[in-house]
Amino acid sequence: MRFTTFLIFASFILASARAADVPKDYLNVIIILADDLGYGDLHCYGHPTFKTPNLDRLAAEGARLTDFYSTCPYCAPSRASLMTGRYQFRSGLTANPAPDVPNNPALDKIGLPDSEITLAQCFQRAGYATCAVGKWHLGHQPQFFPTRRGFGEYLGILYSNDMRPVRLFDGDMIVEYPVVQSTLEKRYAARACDFIKRHQNSPFFLYVPGVMPHKPLAASEVFYKKTGTNLYGDAVAELDWSVGQILSTLHDLDLDDKTLVLFTSDNGPWYGGSTAGLRGMKGNAWEGGIREPLIARWPGHIPRGLVSHEPAAMIDLFPTTLTATDHADLIPADRPIDGKVIMPLLTTESAKSPHDALFSMQGPRLTTIRSGPWKLFLQERPNPRTMRPDEKWTDPRAPDGVTLVAPYEQAHPSQYPGVLTGDDTHAGSLFNLEIDASEQHDVSKDHPDIVQRLQAIADEMNKQVPQPAPPPAPNAKTKKAKARPSPAE
User: Fold this and answer.
1) What is the pLDDT of residues 170-216, one digit of tens each?
2) Which distant-in-sequence residues (6+ apart) come within 8 Å of 324 by Cβ?
3) Is 47 a catalytic site residue?
4) For the packed helices 75-84 and 317-324, what is the interaxial angle rounded to 10 degrees?
5) What Cα–Cα distance (Å) separates residue 142 from each residue in 111, 112, 147, 154, 294?
6) Which of 86, 120, 245, 372 has a CA positioned 20 to 30 A from the CA of residue 406?
7) Is the bond preceding 472 in cis, omega lying within 30 degrees of 0?
8) Active-site residue among 43, 47, 137, 214?
9) Distance (Å, rounded) from C-alpha 134 to C-alpha 26?
10) Sequential DSSP letters for 418-429
11) Are strands 430-432 and 374-377 parallel, antiparallel or unpaired?
């Protein structure tokens, strides 16, 4: 405890010393990260019935990217790439940290290594107040806590809301167990707004990785059964409301013009979410699993209503925000940074993607490469069957399962037969996303030159990817445990 207090005090002294050098025209940064939000779950991305007025307004007042990617179709690796600007194979965090996994106890111990430099650490060094509110999922052992990775404040759950025990942390302390999940979105919004108010006269970096619409779904009584859609729609509506609370706070404090707001999601949706016709879902590398909304607003710098169709990715938020705040000098020079500055895409309609190629990963291996309109699958990957049609999203181990509003009203595969799942992926499949965004037509036989070119680029990148260790020999206990979904999916 004394050592922790010393670290916090030392960080405060260093941040205070740097803050004296902060110019008066500083820029605040807010990154809002939804959890398992589908590409088509927002009205401004084409949902026919979900109402998302606050996010629609954010898009109308700023820029919207249509071809923005996570680097992985599930949670932790995607967040690692956001926090470091690097593909997750560089940090080694290629699976989801998870407590109490009988067939893979190693997942309880993994996290973002100390050798990685986080975006929060860079902003803290620049004299910014830093705060994270929501799901961390970059390691839940004490050495990985967000308060040890550049965040001066933290409120949230250290992993996904379906991983037990679900415990709410404030800083390094457990403040609620069991957690009433239907209250989380409201409480996260309140903490985020309180942080903004307390730091309205100095630069701040606020990271809000929310709880919804990750399953198990929950909504407060204010939104439950109020949207006329379903529980998924209720959860999305409350997410939109929470964004509105943050935007209203910025407006009331006259901070709009000096705050860059970015909104995206970590990966595609589970059953119940919309991919706007894209193939696949969370857990696979079809477009529905890795293509995400990206909305950016910075009045006076990002034009209103701009739409870009150029490819960009989660890794780009790291160098883009540091460059926009005039702290590009804090981008680490001693390691590869895979992200590129994408501010031109957010400010100029004619701007082109800074990437020659973008990769996605599943586990420790590269899965796809996108270059221009082309996307090539690099490995065989069976489509994960993550839920049985009769499976309910409840926890029989009370008390967690009984603290949800409407815990039985979750969407199931039987409601979406053949719509979101796609088929197994096949190495060498090639798609022209410019004319076939739903990936229905493999054109590899028509363009062997493109396949060869993209494979050569991937082969060069693979030289930097550590080779995965061979899987352990299966035993009866492991086979039985694998009947349940893997935390990496």
Assistant:
1) 999 999 988 888 899 999 999 999 999 999 999 999 999 999 999 88
2) 27, 29, 260, 298, 343
3) no
4) 30
5) 10, 12, 9, 13, 32
6) 245
7) no
8) 137
9) 25
10) TTS----B-TT-
11) antiparallel
Q: What is the pLDDT of residues 408-455, one digit of tens each?
A: 677 766 666 554 455 677 899 999 999 999 999 999 999 999 999 999
Give strand ranges (E) for 26-62: 28-34
Residue identified by tokens 């909305």 is 295
Measuring CA to CA, which residue among 274, 314, 230, 223 is closest to residue 43?
274
Task: Name the fold adopted by 14-355.
Answer: Alkaline Phosphatase, subunit A (3.40.720)
CB 27 within 8 A of CB 258: yes
Neighbouring C-beta atoms of residue 448, cutoff 10 Å: 11
Contacts with 57 (C-beta within 8 Å, 6 or more apart), sequence order: 247
Is 44 tagged catalytic?
no
Give me 427's structure tokens: 């190495």
Tens of pLDDT, residue by residue over 342-358, are: 999 999 999 999 999 99
DSSP, collapsed to helix, strand or coil, labels residue 444 as coil
Alpha helices in 20-152 (DSSP H): 53-60, 75-84, 88-91, 119-125
- Ordered by start, the domain boundaries in the chain are 14-355
Residue of 72, 75, 122, 193 with catalytic role: 75
What is the arithmetic mean of pLDDT over 379-383? 74
| pLDDT tens figures, 455-485 | 999 999 999 999 876 656 655 454 444 444 4
